[in-house]
Amino acid sequence: MPLADDDGMPCTGGKEGMKMSESQGFMKSLKCRECGRDYALEATHVCEFDFGPLEVSYDYERIRAVLTREAIESRQRSMWRYRELLPVAGEPTVGRQVGYTPLVKADRLARRLGIRELWIKNDAVNYPTLSFKDRVVSVALSRSVELGFKTVACASTGNLANSVAANAAAAGLDAYVFIPHDLEQGKVVNSLVYGAKVVGIRGHYDEVNRLCAEIAGKYPWAFVNVNMRPYYAEGSKSMGFEIQEQLGWRIPRHTVVCMASGSLLTKIHKSYQEFSKLGIVPATPWKIHGAQATGCNPITQAQKAGLDFFKPQKPNTIAKSLAIGTPADGFYALKVMKETGGHGEDVTDDEIREGIRLLAECEGIFAETAGGVTVGVAKKLIAHGKIPADESAVLCITGNGLKTLDAVVGHVGEPREIRPSLREFEGLLTSMTGALATA
Amino acid sequence: MNVMVDVPPSLRRLCGGEVELRASPGSVADIVEELSRRFHGLGSRLCEHDGSLRGSVLVLVNDEDIRFLESRSTTVRAGDKLSFVPAFAGG
Q1: Inter-chain contact B63–A207, Cβ cutoff 8 Å?
Q2: Could you give the C-alpha distances from A47 to A15, A438, B64, in angstroms and in order?
């Protein structure tokens, strides 16, 4: 409910069966990104007046008084060390160990891509389900518990399903996850194993999400990316906070982020804005670049055409975690790229596989297909001079390659089999290296 | 026979709490105009000042996004289903 109706009269209260949290921490309200109307901090996600998405607004003056570099550094190494800028009223109750993943200086990959300095923010090893989704789920479920929900749910392309299933199990919540029926087996098993109720929908992700919007209107569940979306999305900021801290309290000149709905890109931008606004890092200029698969590129296609709106698509790519043809935050992602001077670029399925191999062979990091998209796009942007070779960039890797083995099986070679014989091994070694190796 | 219109939760208050409405067959634009006449305030929720549909709302005819069809000119026949759905997030 909006806090004030058309006639200016205040409206308060939550839906039946839900309770308003008594304390709201550093949150002020949910605010419509289109018209600016304020809403109570409930489980709701769109403005009743214009369908605009709602976003959490904070009391930055109070935050400024307590959130310092020293305070952050004194805390446990998890995403919750930035808790004043995350939307929970009290202490987090779900996923307290999530985040603070490595920021790896990627010198070998930098040489291969032809850039002076390159960093990999490696959420392929995020806890507990090996993707950045643990960040958003940790926030969404902690807030769901605060609002009194017992059942959580999501529409997912896979990684979110895994994270909701695992974190709900750890928190003792019932979980329903809705996925396209043709997801990679790794992602399906990684949801089932936690005891979540997994529902495969015979349709693509946009259709799954549409169904979930209807279910969310009928059942009193916390759908993390439907009615809990304003809180959920804020969890992505923690990836940006960590990048700035791990770089030595500075904003990277270039950041390359893969895009599905476009939300992660906008939230990393917001994290740079918040830290600089609060004086935690110097306000230096930054550019954020968006990466998509050519088989589902509504946002990058619009960016390259100079448009501020996109045409929806029907996805056809191996990067299933990015296969959203109607991206909810597409408009806002385009705006961020335009405002920061960033670019959008996309890569084919073969280029995605090449990106996965490059990252693996140069840095020992096995990313899922979305990571191949990010590396492939960074390669193109550097080659085209859109990221200058004498500058520095951070690539955001969002998920683990073990979940999308199907995409690379048959493209990374096969093991060579021999009998247990030294002579056979040395013959093989000669064929592999072109010369007989000596000890 | 009429067109069946799915009403999303965020618009139900304006539509007397109805989950589903009936409307006369016609183009999407015709039906939006009819519903706007019947339910005060509905038009401004769905449309910009110039009458175009808001970008933040998906309009589906029989579950197909009208941007893949003929946008506001898409014909909605008797027995078809018309849905208004808020844009959604990633997963």
Answers
A1: yes
A2: 15, 71, 24
